[in-house]
Predict the 3D structure of the following.
Amino acid sequence: MNKKQFVTKSSLQPAPKVLVSCRDKDGKDNALAVGYCGNCSYDPPMVMVGIVPSRHSYQMVKDTKCFVVNLPTKDYQKEFDYLGSVSARDEDKLAKMNIKTADASKVNAPILVDCPVNIECTVVDSIMTGSHEMFIGKIENINADENIVNEDGSIDYSKLDLI
Ligand SMILES: Cc1cc2nc3c(=O)[nH]c(=O)nc-3n(C[C@H](O)[C@H](O)[C@H](O)COP(=O)(O)O)c2cc1C
């Protein structure tokens, strides 16, 4: 066997690329790029997102205990890169990029309207794994563009060119 043995970070690939949007306790909205995320229960449906405590969004999610996972498509790459490299501590990212938002239906956070799928979650638990705090989000509602929803209510991901 000719294998090198070592430990490295982010070893599961491809990693998902999502935008997590949130709102602070004063009503200010924000979003950040997240790669540490995944499905973590189907009954009840839940997802988890990992946020590093130094992110501006971290305290927002801690305070309001909810977030929205938005799935960006390739035509949203510029916005994704910006939201994943600039902090709301330094500027109002959503205003700067003219990002269209709307209130989520079931949680106190914004959805990013131009992402075709927006998953509204409430935080039911969290665990500090190391660098990230993994927030377990119970899915309260999903908003999806009408043209990608199958008759049985599932999402046709083959129609999406996700980042
Ligand atoms: C591809 C990509 C994946 C990222 N994944 C994460 C992640 O899983 N968790 C995290 O806290 N930050 C992640 N980041 C970094 C944040 O999105 C970035 O630090 C952002 O500017 C934080 O914004 P905020 O300070 O306004 O919350 C990622 C960035 C990129 C480009």
In short: The first helix runs from residue 56 to 64. The radius of gyration is 16 Å. The pocket of flavin mononucleotide is lined by residues 17, 30, 32-36, 50-52, 55-57, 84-89, 132 (CB under 6 Å).
